[in-house]
UniProtKB/TrEMBL annotation:
Alphabetical list of Pfam families matching this protein: Acetyltransf_2 (PF00797)
InterPro entries, sorted: Arylamine_N-AcTrfase, Papain-like_cys_pep_sf
Protein name per its UniProtKB record: Arylamine N-acetyltransferase
Organism: Actinomadura fibrosa
Cross-referenced PANTHER family: ARYLAMINE N-ACETYLTRANSFERASE 4-RELATED, N-HYDROXYARYLAMINE O-ACETYLTRANSFERASE
Recorded superkingdom: Bacteria
Family affiliation: Belongs to the arylamine N-acetyltransferase family.
Length: 262
């Protein structure tokens, strides 16, 4: 089915105004994270060509994700959302980020593709393609602390970057990812990059699938068999050792039947 903004809004169960305001952006952003899951299984087998499809076919992606109900990766989910926002009249563009790794370092600058929007004189980060835990609503690029559903966020400068930091109920601040305040062009991902290829080989070698989807007050992130739940700022981690439970959780996140999620 070709891209259709009205069908998109219906899929998001958005019943309010669609004017390009901050309230609309907040509502759509949260609903998108609740409705469409992130699924890294879609990258399996792509090897070092993880970003080859970054310039999405809008109609094909719309038909498969919005109409068909499958999950998506960062550039698919954020790409579709960027098209929707542009059609609604928002001033939107592309940013890229390096995500904080387990050892505290950051991935390559082009590792993650997300969006930004300028609304009412403010610059907001718009990201519906990051598995989390992260912001559920647009985040203003500002050092001020911004509270969302029990978690706090801020955007702080560091070494020429802006770093998105998050704090849950524990009060400990931790980086989510870093980005440069410079609009990106999709063509940048098409230029051969030894850094990106090496990073892609690392991801492929790990072989760990990551799935995630949000709910009204938080997020569920399944990394392999490790389930992280953030609810109203409270974090819990559980390892799913029972294969049947693992299948059930995958199915719940991806909104599929358990047998389809294997």
């Amino acid at each position: 089915m070709p891209f259709d903004a009205d069908v998109y809004l219906k899929a998001l169960d958005h019943r309010g105004p669609a004017a390009p305001t901050l309230d609309t952006l907040r509502a759509l952003h949260h609903r998108h994270l609740i409705t469409f899951p992130y699924d890294s299984a879609l990258n399996a087998g792509r090897g070092t060509a993880l970003w080859a499809g970054v310039d999405i076919d809008r109609d094909a992606a719309f038909d498969e994700i919005v109409v068909g109900g499958r999950g998506g990766n960062c550039y698919e989910l954020n790409g579709l959302f960027r098209i929707l926002l542009a059609e609604l009249g928002f001033d939107v563009g592309i940013f890229s980020a390096g995500i904080r790794q387990m050892d505290g370092s950051f991935g390559p600058d082009l590792e993650h593709l997300f969006n930004h929007a300028r609304v009412d004189g403010g610059l907001y980060l718009v990201d519906v393609g990051f598995v989390g835990p992260s912001y559920l609503e647009p985040l203003r690029v500002s050092g001020e602390v911004q509270s969302q559903h029990g978690s706090r966020f801020r955007v702080v400068p560091a070494d020429g970057y802006h770093v998105v930091e998050r704090s849950g109920r524990s009060g400990v601040w931790q980086a989510v990812y870093r980005f440069r305040d410079r609009p990106r062009d999709l063509a940048e991902w098409q230029v051969p990059s030894a850094e990106l290829e090496a990073f892609a080989r690392t991801l492929a070698g790990a072989g760990i699938l990551v799935r995630g989807r949000s709910f009204a007050t938080g997020q569920r992130v399944l990394i392999g068999k490790r389930l992280l739940t953030v609810d109203d700022g409270h974090e819990t981690v559980r390892v799913l050792t029972d294969p049947a439970e693992h299948e059930r959780v995958v199915a719940e996140i991806l909104r599929t039947r358990a047998e389809d999620a294997r």
